[in-house]
Fold this protein.
Amino acid sequence: MTSPNTEQLEEATKRASEEYHAVLFLYLADRQCYGKKLEDMEHAILRKKDPFPKNVSDACQLLIG
C-alpha cells in the first residue's frame, strides 16, 4: 500500500471538512420544521444508504426541498 501525497491529504481533509459542516448545518436546523427529514436520513443510514449531503449548499437544498 502506498502513502498518500500532500495533495491527496489536502483534498481528503477539505472534503471531510465540507461534509462535517453540512451535517452540522443539518443538525442545527429547526427540529420543529425539519425533524422528520432528519429522522428519515438517520433511518436511511441504518439501511446502509448515505443520504447526507456532501456540502452546506446541498444541505440547504435538502431542507428547502
In short: The helical segments are 6-27, 31-46, 56-64. The chain has a mean pLDDT of 91. Residues 6-64 form one domain. The chain has one domain: 6-64.
